[in-house]
Design a protein that fits this description.
The protein is about 30% helix and about 20% strand. The chain is built from four helices and seven strands. The strands form two sheets. Strands 3, 4, 5 and 6 form a four-stranded antiparallel beta sheet that branches. Strands 2-1-7 form a three-stranded antiparallel beta sheet, with helices on one face. Strand 1 and strand 2 form a beta hairpin. It is globular, with a radius of gyration of 15 Å. It starts with 17 loop residues before the first helix and ends with a helix. The mean pLDDT is about 95.
């Protein structure tokens, strides 16, 4: 597992429409393994990919570093259940943000009220880059998948 971005596969992201994402979105580029993580903020809603729910803990872990970097703190992945017993995973900056979310979504709960995964502390890596990739970088990155 990469100490910086928390996953073993250095080319696992982007998951959805990888070419489109790499071409049109700002990427967090892991200075340790080179993995690209979409960190683009939607200009209308100010949301980033890490703000949305994930189907699995493994997928949520792929975006956790982008959340940590954005907030400059160690965020956590929480398992959220709905009233039908289905689970999703969401990244929050802490228990206060989780509680705000649960207060707005009365049909959802978090039995543990604690993260199922967190890096515990935020570490700033000096060679990290946040930028758009060149066409050559995109081609190389996709060829290494």
């Amino acid at each position: 597992m990469c100490k910086e971005c928390y996953v073993a596969d250095s080319r696992c992201t982007p998951l959805l429409k990888p070419l489109d994402c790499l071409k049109n979105h700002t990427q967090y580029i892991c200075s340790t393994c080179g993995r690209c993580i979409c960190i683009e903020a939607d200009p209308k809603r100010s949301l980033q990919r890490w703000n949305f729910p994930f189907k699995t803990l493994e997928i949520a872990k792929m975006y956790l570093r982008a959340a940590d970097y954005t907030t400059k703190k160690a965020c956590g992945i929480y398992q959220i259940e709905n009233s039908r017993g289905q689970s999703i995973y969401k990244i929050f900056t802490g228990a206060d943000d989780l509680q705000l979310y649960l207060n707005k979504h009365k049909d959802k709960s978090c039995s543990a009220m604690a993260p199922v995964y967190t890096a515990k502390e935020f570490i700033a890596y000096p060679n990290t880059q946040v930028r758009r990739l060149s066409d050559e970088e995109i081609e190389k990155y996709l060829s290494e998948r």
